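Render this sequence as a predicted structure.
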Amino acid sequence: MNIMQKIEKAQCKESVPDFKVGDTVKVSTKIVEGTTERIQNFTGVVIARKSFGIRETFTVRRFQNGYGVERIFPLHSPRVENITVERKGQVRRAKLFYLRSKIGKAARIKEQKFFGK
């Protein structure tokens, strides 16, 4: 194993939830305001995941007050407190950039059905 790979592996988070593109997630981030810290939630649809290892990022999009808002989060950042999967989406694309031009009902993603045990 390369030295850089060892250093990166040591800095990666141990518990990362299993989510993919199309899922609705709630990301809790630490916000520092002066001397105080607070947690702020950002709920939306994951439209992209990029890269691997310590560099991995994911993009979350939500529609708020008539505007589409997107945020890019580093997956292994210490500022990202936790990620909660609220809905599993059923999509057939790796990147959902087409949602940027959709509004309202057209921007919905079908929920994944689980059959089995």
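Summary. The first strand starts at residue 24 and ends at 33. The CA atoms of residues 90 and 110 lie 6 Å apart.
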